[in-house]
């Protein structure tokens, strides 16, 4: 066999247009004239009318069949020679009276023992199309019988052959034993299969009129391809429609005071829309995390929709819908299995644990990175079939784009290694070449992970050991893994925030040791069972390790934020668990075909129930108040929900209710900097600036780094006449906000009031650099220059 062909190439012809005639007159004439002189005189008739069309036909059919063999590349089409081997034959006729050719699995050898994806045979009196293995070598036959004896694989094969026979195909083989092989029970339910020494499936005979028509290209694959394409399209449409219908209600939702305010609405570089300055900022900023594509997507939203949050919510929903469809297509490409892939995609798209990632505007990074995760899987399926540098570059590009959306994708190269085991079957003996193949991707992951840790440490998002001990981190790992599994099976009482017990004063880690030990035992048991079943059911180990590995970046060893677990963290990892369930169900059906109806009904019920729960959960994200009230109702000691609700109530003017919730948050967690900040702002609104200052001071002592706390406290100290304290606060804030114009004004003014003109001039010069076209900035600089005696330069600034 030749090497693999590149898609789109042809052996000789560009396009099959039909054979010379429908009756095979050339072969009938050849049967009557088995002389070399006659064939030499008619060679051109054979080559142009039959040989070249056969090559073109096989080349086109091969392209159509390629996607049906995701695990094995197809080789170049081969047409048998028309010359007969007459060395040991009684019939010395030199020529065959037919033409035959096939498309085989690449690298599987040559001759009658090669497994053929398709064989086409046309002659004077016969025409047929078949697929399979005409004759098996002893080692192939041994593997075939082992598979037939296996309950799962043998059951699947039997069910498939029956389905083909009902569709009009004929099942046969080169030779059949009279009895079952030695050592096998003659009454074995698959005894007839075990007698076979090959296995071929012959298609329904194509009509003769197709021989001269381009439509013959469709004879072997057309009906299957069209039916499969319609089914895939219908499933994709159902997935997309279901997701968009579920999340249509978010069109009426607003921005939340959970990151939306800080990251999007009040961040002019984002809310002003897309600009070259914004592009540069997105690419260079590591203030929160390095996620330039996510920032750019938000800028595009503001450019197109303005400050209206409704359409921006629908963009999140559309990306999630696309992710569901792409996951289905990726699993279909990787495994070749239609309905398990559809079930996994349905569970992914409709499960309530996805709601947080889709309904929360600030979590655009989840759905956008998920988009590139799915595209990476699709690209990797193509690469695994036919490795090439170009295809590897596509995989790497999709992966890098995912990391530029959210760096949680650092685990994706390891997931690709798992897919090499199953379903791709690329692990033969030593996996070393596959590991080497992933090294560039792993190096990119390491760089992205390092950049993320650096960025989040700069934001004080990473919790120190003083804030959360090593013991708490270790205990939380099995608890988080098990919690996600429980929430997947029973997705109720979901909240936007779950309080970490280690963050609440008075909670002892010892009280959580027993559940942690139990969770560890459960996780270890599942892992051992998956390892034990890896030969018969490799999808269990692959799916389970997908889940474990993909969650590693957010499992809490490197604690980011104050939560022990979060719904949004399951967006991609939980796909592995869905894979385990879907392919286990497929295996159960293959063993007991009578379960098909129950499986279909059960799957439909699960998906409808998931969608119903998601609809209700989506509604809780309508606004900050409703979201926080729901979290308080379904969780205990949720200080974060109380302070979020307090903030929402304060913004709506309900100061009394707001104060109650903020004080409740501080009762649970007295060192909550955010609650102290919000309480200070509320007390200022009520006119009690002294109490507000006390609250701000407590927030700062708790290590809370907030622009608002320092700014408001500095203003209070300034109004009290304590300029030294105000200057100290403004200076501290300036280290974090060096380009904040208002800070430069306040600090420069205070320094000028203390006659510290040289220092004031520095700040007003920086102000002019920040706002070169603002007359107020030049005037302020001119005033302080004049007070410092620098009248000429002051005059220049006044002229500006």
Structure, briefly:
By secondary structure, this protein is mainly alpha-helical. It contains 33 helices and 6 strands.
Question: Can you tell me about this structure?
Answer:
The protein is mainly alpha-helical. The protein has three domains: 199 residues, BirA Bifunctional Protein, domain 2, CATH 3.30.930; 396 residues, no CATH class; 63 residues, Tetratricopeptide repeat domain (Serine Threonine Protein Phosphatase 5, Tetratricopeptide repeat, Alpha Horseshoe). Helices cover 61% and strands 4% of the residues. Strands 1-2-3-4-6-5 form a six-stranded antiparallel sheet. Strand 3 and strand 4 form a beta hairpin. Helix 31 runs antiparallel to helix 32. The protein starts with 24 loop residues before the first helix and ends with a helix.
Query: What can be said about the biggest beta sheet?
Result: 6 strands, antiparallel
What is the helix fraction of residues, given as a range?
55-70%
Strand content: under 5%
> How would you describe the shape?
elongated
- Given the structure, what is the number of helices? 33
Spans of at least 5 consecutive residues whose pLDDT stays below 50 are: 1-13, 459-465
- Strand arrangement in the largest pleated sheet: 1-2-3-4-6-5
Oligomer: single chain
Strand runs, count: 6
Mean pLDDT over the full residue set:
88
N-end to C-end Cα span: 81 Å
